[in-house]
Structures are given as C-alpha cells and as structure tokens.
Amino acid sequence: MIKRLSTESKKNLLYLYNRIWKEHYFPTFWQQATIIPLLKPGKDPTNPSNYRPIALACCLCKLLEKMINCRLVYYLETNHFIHPSQSGFRRGRSTVDNLLALETGIRLAFLERKHFVAVFFDIEKAYDKT
C-alpha cells in the first residue's frame, strides 16, 4: 500500500520520518506487534514447542527501520567497519564466499605441505525461542 501512495502522501511520510529522526521521538504504538503462532510443517499441533512466533508489526515502523538500516549498512561498509570475511546478512554475499575461502585455504596448505585446521560449530536451535 505504501508503494501506491501519491507523491504528496510520500512527501508527508518523509516529513513525518524526518521529524521522528530530528526529535528523537519514536511513536510508542509503533513498537507494538501482534504475535501469531504458526505451526512448524509436519509437527504435532498439540505440542506448544512446535509453533514459531510471527510478529505482525506496523508497516510505517518497518519502512523507517529499513531506511535507517540501509543507511547504516552503507556507512559501515564504505568505512570498512565490517570484516571482509563477514558474509551473513550482506547484499551480494553468501555462505558460498566462506566455503570458497575455506577451500582455497585447504588447497594452499596442501600445496605447501602444511597443516590446515578448521573448527566448525553446529549449534542446534541456537536461535529457537519457541
């Protein structure tokens, strides 16, 4: 719906966002969300731990957060605050980048007849809140 706003409405929204930014005031009702439990595929619906929460948040809040995030990421990347080996949550990067770096390290160690040590962690349900 926001994409289909008139030019005048978009200007008003930008004015609102700029006031929020300048006055350091974030509307409290924007910080509220409705939590909907969704059943994980193929799981028993009688077990509460088989549900994952989905938060339905204010779309105006989400848009402002996205704008701020884009600016912050741009600043961090152009000023080299993010390490080059960090691939998670970065545009144009993926785990394939890290796998390629790992493979390159293994091949170089093999060619130079050196040892190569790699440590892997697989933390099951590391971020599972349900």
TrEMBL record:
GO terms for biological process: DNA biosynthetic process. SUPFAM superfamilies: DNA/RNA polymerases. Pfam families: RVT_1. InterPro entries: DNA/RNA_pol_sf (IPR043502), RT_dom (IPR000477). It comes from the Eukaryota. Residues 44-129 form the Reverse transcriptase domain. This is Reverse transcriptase domain-containing protein. It comes from Araneus ventricosus (Orbweaver spider).
